[in-house]
Amino acid sequence: MKRPENTCADAQRGTRMAKANHIAGLKFKYHYLVALPIVLLLIVAIYIKATENKQWTLAVEAQATNNNSSSECNLFRGKWVLDNQSYPLYKERKCLFLADEFACEKYGRKDLKYQNWRWQPHQCDLPRFNATSLLNRLRGKRLVFVGDSLNRNQWDSLVCLVESSIPSSSKSRQFIGNLFTFKAIEYNVSIDFYWSPLLVESNSDHPLNHSLPERIVRVQAIEKHARHWTDADIIIFNTYLWWLRPKMKVLWGSFESPDGIYKEIDMLRSYEMALKTWSDWLEINVNKSRTQLYFVSMSPAHLRGDEWGTSASQNCYKETEQIFQKGKGYWESETNQKMMRVVESAIEELKSRGLEVQMLNITQLSEYRKDAHPSIYRKQRVAITEDQLLNPTSYADCAHWCLPGVPDAWNEILYAYIIQYSNIHRN
User: Fold this and answer.
1) Where in the cell is it found (predicted)?
2) Active site residue 400
3) Catalytic residue check, 149
4) What phi-psi label fits residue 166: left (phi over 0), alpha (psi between -120 and 50 degrees) or beta?
5) Contact present, 317 and 393 (Cβ < 8 Å)
6) Catalytic one of 148, 149, 157, 196
7) CA-CA distance, 141 to 184, in Å (whole number)?
8) Residue 236 — φ and ψ, nearest 5°?
9) Whole-model pTM?
10) What is the pLDDT confidence band of residue 369, given thresholds at 50, 70 and 90?
């Protein structure tokens, strides 16, 4: 029988083809394995972006409803979760511009657990604060906090949150009168604080010398202050602490005129009159299509220990844990809910006139944090007497907040709203 001539050659060609196919298969598998994680990352990124937009739409819609109703995602209802892996969001000693009034670790506080609590809404997650993302969204814009020292506290927090991501040569801070300015030069961003503790004019308007025995307010005068923030793209207002007295002395006329009329008026009524002046100014002067407006609700002070199971003479001094036993819906007796309703009414009235002001309702989430005040661990602007040294509760600051701390959560919520706003107006 005749033997096929090409059997060996065919076998060799078959072997070579099998090897080539095997190598091609290996190459395909290699490229597939390399490409797969990239594709998955892209899918995850697209999903996160889509859900982020949806999530914060839900959050804003939820906050627009009555706070007492159940809503899908209310950013202001939740709990504090201990998270010492991710928090604090910055280190106190690395925040170059932090005011000594809020630098508790610097002034001797040893227990730092207050820095490790994260605010967790019940029905959603806050976005992780990203300084670069915020600065990009604020590029070419001006953000201004207007109000009292609690708004200064929040301004310091936001400056600390962003400044570590900016090179030293590209940032600056300056104080000119009532205006405190932080600039991120590369981004052309200005983050400001304007001292105006009652929003309208008062005899407490000096940025340093404002602790006077008698408080006088011009409830119908705001222009002297307002001209400093008319051009802002984002304005965050507050006013609360400086109204806490039974009556306010109201002036019709100017401080310079001998013909001014003075009258003592119930605090709540004078507060209402001042917010009417504020809201009228906003309606006339604010660019509704460009300016974002926020109002921060009252920040609680922890002055009565009997509210959390100790003596009435005890305050936040030596407190190292938050309030757990009160459950949800806890309000301190010192918190003036009538003042909150006046603010809510003013905001609703503005809404009916076509101007949106978003309430940042930080009151109740802050009520639980008796552990997070400076207490005695801050720079004292007035010399402490021997009697006070014997009784530290007498000079403990239970109104302001250590940083890092509670105001960082306020700014995380503000950040969520800014993300939401920029996403809506970019699409």
Assistant:
1) Membrane
2) yes
3) yes
4) beta
5) yes
6) 149
7) 10
8) -115, 110
9) 0.83
10) very high
pLDDT of 18 reads 53
Considering 148, 205, 371, 397, which one is annotated as catalytic?
A: 397
> How far apart are alpha carbons 151 and 75 in whole angstroms?
20
As a whole number, the mean pLDDT across the chain is 86
Identity of the amino acid at 301? A
Residue 308: C-alpha distances to residues 46, 78, 316, 369 (Å)? 46, 19, 10, 11
Q: Which of 225, 228, 373, 400 is catalytic?
A: 400
Predicted confidence band at 309 (pLDDT cuts at 50, 70, 90)? confident
- Joined tokens for residue 200: 């309208």
